[in-house]
Each structure stands twice: as structure tokens, then as C-alpha cells.
Amino acid sequence: MRRLPKLKTxxxxxxxxxxxxxxxxxxxxxxxxxxxxxxxLREATYLPSSYEWxxxxxxFTGGLLDNLLVTLKVAGGSTILVLLVALPAAYYSARHKFxxxxxxxxxxxxxxxxxxxxxxxxxxxxxxxxxxxxxxxxLILVNGGFNLAFAVxxxxxxxxSIPRELEEAAFxxxxxxxxALFRVTLPLAMPGVITALIFTFIAAWNEFVVAxxxxxSKENQPLTVALNSFIGQYEVDWQNLFAGSVIATIPVxxxxxxxxxxxxxxxxxxxxx
Length: 273
Hints:
By secondary structure, the protein is mainly alpha-helical. The chain has helices spanning 7-34, 54-61, 64-95, 101-111, 120-130, 136-161, 164-172, 177-188, 190-206, 209-214, 223-227, 238-268.
């Protein structure tokens, strides 16, 4: 007969479900509010008496789909830029003991302490001089620059934890430096690469202050700025605001669903020949 779970297991599972519910409850409220008719917003009930699905349809008919595409371009471009710069920087600093290496890593860590909000005036002035105000490229460069430090640090830690002997064995098999990097080192460091990718993508996806400062036209505004237009001086359009927020979370959920398996496979990929 199947044994009953131990009391400790039951308690841990119950606590886990409670914590999960606490974190998921605001998203459930957001979803239900996005489906409420305007006249029922002040009802003291969690479940609406009727549902208005047109609130979600207004996201596509109201022009917010273009802003969602802008956000995808900014987040995707920033992620690609960070990986292209962080991978060689982290690999070189992990494999070579050059003069000033410690100072370089400390300087990289210090730059992580700066926030775009505190430098928004200087950032605007710089991109104004470059003629990049109200452009997607400005948002990509800013988000990539402010997330680069974390990516370098996390990738440097992963590359340093991989034994050099694995690359030397690849050299004996006829691989060059790049062959050993892409066939041995990168697969083993894939958890770190995925972590840097997720961090950069989510940070660029949620960024608001710099995007609000650097973009002036509606077609170049990311979704975070476009959703802010539903908040007026005397009234807030809660249905459309929450409907847009619900749809904005879907790409992030899909990203995590796709990457979760890659993180697990990256733990063992390349460990055997």
C-alpha cells in the first residue's frame, strides 16, 4: 500500500502553496480587474458579476501592439548587445591573469551601483548631442550599458569555475581557442549565460524612467510608457491599464517556460564527450 506523506512533508508543501498563492494573488486580481466592466469597478467583490472581454481586445485595436513590439525590440536588442560584449570580456578576465585584472572587475562592479534614474539628465544630454533622442537605439544602448556589469560578473564566475583541463583536452583533439570555447566552455557555462540573459531581458522590459525621458513620439515608446497614458490627472482607466499589463506579462512567461528546460540541460551539456 502507498504510504501517507510525513507530517514534515505536508507542512513544507502547505507553506510552499501558501507562499505561491501570496505571490500569484496580485496577478489574479489584475486579471480579474482587466475583465471587469467599468460600472463594477467599485464593487467590493473579487469575482466580477460579468466579464467584458473587449478590454483585452482594446489592447490590439488601440495601438498598444506597436508599443509591445518596441519593447520586444529594446529588450531583445539590449540582451544581444550585453551577451556580445560580456561573453568575451568575462572569458578573457577568467582565463588570463593580466595586470589590473582585479581593478577591472572592481570597476565593473562599481558601475552596477549606478542607476539610470540618477543619471537621466546626463543620459538625455549625451543622446541629444548624438542625435539619438526618440529612437529605439538609444534605449537599447542605455539598457545594455546598465546591465552589462552584472552579466560580466556572473559569466566571469562561471568561466572561472570550469577547469582549464577541459579546454586543454579540446586543444589536443584539434580544436582551437574558439572551438574549445563554443564546444566545451560555453555549454558548461550555459546556466550563467541564461541567468545573464534573463536578468538583462527583464530589466530592459520593465525599464520606465529612461524610456519616458528619451522617447517623445508614441510610436517609439515602449509598453511601460504607453501604459502610463491610462493614468490621468483626475481618472485612471483601470480596465485598459490592467488589460495591457496582463498582455505585457505573457511574453515574459513564455520566455521563462522556454528557458527553464535549457537551464537544466545546460548543467550537464558538455560534461561528457
